[in-house]
Amino acid sequence: MFHDAWFSLPLYYLLLVNQLISSFNLDTRQPNIKIGPKGSYFGYSVAEHLIDFDSPVLLVGAPRAQTDQPGTNRSGYLFQCKTSNFIDDCTPLSVDYDRSNPLPPREKEFKNDQWLGVVVKSAGPGGQVMTCAHRYVEQGKDYHWSRGICYSLTHYLDYHRAWEPCDNRPVKKAHEEYGFCQAGTSIDISSSNDLLIGAPGPYTWRGTVFINAIRFALRDDKTWYMGRVQEKESPVDKYSYLGMSVTSGKFFGDKMSFVGGAPRSNGTGQVVFFSKEKGSFLSVDLILSGEQFASSFGYTLLTMDLQNDNKPDLIVGAPFYYDGSRSEGAVYLYYNTGKGIDSKYDVRLLGKQDSRFGWALADLGDINKDGFNDLVVGAPYDEGGGAIYIYLGSPNGIKTNAIQVIKGEDIKGFGQTGRPIRTFGYSLSGSFDMDKNGYPDLLVGAYESDAAILLRARPILNIATRVDNITQIDANREDCREDPSSKLPCFVIEPCFQLLNSPKGKSVLQLRYVIEAESFLEKKPIVPRVKFNSSAESDNPHIVNTTIPILSDRVGRWNCHRELVYIKDKSDIHRSIQFQLTYSLEQEEPKQPPGMWSNLPDIDRYPILNQEEARKVFHASFLKECRNTEQCQSNLNVIAKLQHPMDTPYTQDRILYLGSTDVNLELTVRNTMEPAYDANLYIYHPFITYIGKDQTEGEQIDCKPFNISLLVCSLGNPFKRGEVKLNLKFDPKDITESQNDVDIRVFVNTSSVDLNQAKNDISTKLLVIRRADLEIKGSSDPAGVWFGGEVVGEVAMKTSDDIGSRIEHSYTIISNGPYHPKELTVEIDWPYSLSSDKEEGKWLLYLMNTIVVQGKGQCVPTLGTVNPLKIWDSESVSIKSDSFVKSRPKRQTIVPAKRIMEDGKSQNVVVLDCQKKTARCYKFLCYLQDLRPGVPSVIVFIGRLWNSTFVEDYASGVNQVHIYSRARLAIGPSIRQNRTNDDSTFAITKAYPDLPLLPPPRVPLWIIIMSILLGILLLILLIIVLWRCGFFIRRKPGYLAAPVEDKDFDDYN
């Protein structure tokens, strides 16, 4: 049997609290509406303040208000408003200048859009007030630093002093130091009068928290304490925005803790606990992390005691949380155990879709006078113009069902302002009694309507209720003792109530009670089985509606009224007859519209009953066949077995391979003795969703989800001797990335006496293993590019075509299952310059355009990595090609020569790769979400080859230059991969010199000399060979005597 109170089922009647959400004691019919100048963001911040206990004031920030200070534009105001019924009686306070003698700002001050009034905080009665202008600028001829400034006011709202925690701090590196500090984005005043100022800007928006003594008296420690901001010393990385919210409290014993929210830290958001140490720095005591990427965990913080145990609890807002269904925005509650705050939250509250639930948080005070402070949560973008949610505190912490939800459209009379209501709940302030009726009131800001609304609390009349004289119904009786003339059996119920306190100024109250039989149930019968004697002749005989006048002298006494009930149908005696009892006060609606009289209407004339006791459900049961006429004695036995393989033969833990199978639970329930009435089987299954059941043995039973993590199976009324066996299936899709096991609890409950009760509450564990196959592939488009032409400096670069050839490096991530991660981080190295001993090397691949992610996710570039020179992109459309592309910068006009690519030819190749330390790389983190089977996620980097670098360094003697970018999957230990060799990859761009544009190569001198000597040697050898062959020995031609017969003598005759 489950032992929590809401599972305890008494035999005769069951009393259940049914909370009324539509109305509680914050009154929407008589609001105190205040409006400011249009477009001033009046209501961006609000604070209730008591100058003294008789002088309540509403403080409203309007950070974009146009002031009357010369030389400024929209510098902002802090308004004070009276608690009158006029809507436009708010006046600005003299904060950053004397409004009686307005002078221009000092020469070094720049107040345009400084956002004075972005936050406002009151320390309570007799305490000081703080407000800030986080965009306040200190300027000069060659600088413009957004330092931020805060101001403290006395409890009389007179100027006290200015606070500039970032003044005189180094700004040489601008945003990389304190140049854009933005101190005053958030503020808090601790119970020990410490001033906390959040500054999310220092050191590239890493952020920090500053601490000082707000009173700044002689004996106060006037040291500016701060969290460390240097690399490797700060608890957060760049762009974490630590200081976006702050709070304080003694969470760990008597030591004061200072808490800062960093909504972008670690991707999910984090909350950092600081404490003072020697010197001027704060030490880190604890870091809480959000559970979902981009949820902005830590955007808002609140300290309050929800359990009235004098131990402060922490409330954290994550307004961008999204659970994949219809919930958006979350609020996390961390209870103080006495030993401090644990890293695991105790309660998580969820809002509606697109509501930004958790954007604002406030301690409402004890609004229902039960001794426990109550929580209010703002959801400014909820439907109906925004909404606020009221949650009650208790000894066990927060009650997770909102006792009251107020929407902007519920504010009566707001239409008379002539403005639509929007962003109702953007800012909140509570816990002060502004109308002196003994109940705390709530101030709500709606900055898009330039309005603030004070909602006052109506007095609560506490009521105690009970139901007497409920006897078991004897189904065998055919008569009615109370009415002998009736032919129907009957029984008597006697609802009783007791008013525990009396209203002011009222001698007679009209109290109405309504009893409704069965028709209020979700599965209501076609015709209710009973009717009331007092309403037997009406159209609804199953409902009795009675109004009772209550005199003031009856307060504190029980008032009971007998109701006779007839049973019309006895065919179903195993199911109890359910009744709903509701009490309410009858009173006139207030008719006075706002704005007609200066004094607020007397809200004490309109008390309300404590809704937690004003509505109850009870039932009447039939007699059952048992040896003991009071209760049956059953002997239930439950066996639970997970249909999953064991982790190892030596353990009993079972394994769930996430993504490949559902959770299968086999249950067997036996009863070996008397019938068990109202028998139910409960399965507590956090993080897994019920799908259905398959019953294999016994009478068919009905299983229904009670809530998202509890399944209730009705075993029957009664569950007789025998056995039921069924298989339950659950979907593990909601298991988070960080969860490594699932605990399932099974227990049986019955209104009969269970002799085996101690053994019927069992738990079993399922180990979660994520078996995945993730791969990443890289590609370059085009695969090769050309470089050449003249060297051009950075100053001459006007368009992206002036830089060089366009390239794309694409990385495709594929999830082959069976598990598909909900979140995956990809680390990418982009080679932006050559490796050099100097601080900056030559440009290599110039990242021109913003990184593109095809799929669900985003890449987070470091400031100054994407187009740092602000060169105009002349080509905005991606050009895709599957083949080698030869492209040339526009300035090249020489026709390129034909390229010769032959196998075996020697090629001079230069490799530029960060892995080989031949290049420098920017490191990028890309966060992918909801990877799906067969749907690739693609990350594309678009850049330009810096042509001048390659012409200078590689135009001569180099055939190819290979430039690598690399990517790897950052896979956590909770995922087991079948293969890991494809978790990293690269994309390569091959750059070729444009040969016709290259100068002719110079032949080395030694080659020339050797060639001449070789030629001479060859000539000598040739001469020797020819000489040896007799080429140079020839006979000279001489005179030879001719024969006499051949001579011609005729010429001599």
Folded structure, characterized:
There is one protein chain. By secondary structure, this protein is mainly β. The protein has four domains: 26-458, Integrin alpha, N-terminal (Methylamine Dehydrogenase, Chain H, 7 Propeller), CATH 2.130.10; 461-589 and 604-620, Immunoglobulin-like, CATH 2.60.40; 639-768, Immunoglobulin-like; 774-873 and 894-993, Sandwich (Immunoglobulin-like). The protein is 4% helix and 39% strand. It is built from four helices and 68 strands. An eight-stranded mixed sheet has the order 14-15-16-17-21-20-19-18, with no helix packed on it. β50 (702-707) and β51 form a beta hairpin.
Percent strand equals 35-45%
CATH topology of the largest domain: Methylamine Dehydrogenase, Chain H
- Which overall shape is indicated by the principal axes computed on the Cα atoms? flat
| Sheet/helix structural class | mainly beta
What spatial order of strands do you see in the largest sheet?
14-15-16-17-21-20-19-18
Superfamily (CATH H level) name of the largest domain: Integrin alpha, N-terminal
Distance between the termini: 170 Å
CATH architecture of the largest domain: 7 Propeller
Q: Count the helices. How many?
A: 4
Domain count, please report it: 4
Residues in helix, %: under 10%
Low-confidence spans: pLDDT under 50, at least 5 residues? 1-22, 877-903
What does the main sheet amount to?
Answer: 8 strands, mixed
Count the beta strands.
68
Name of the level-1 CATH class of the largest domain: Mainly Beta
Radius of gyration: 42 Å
* Chain-averaged pLDDT: 85
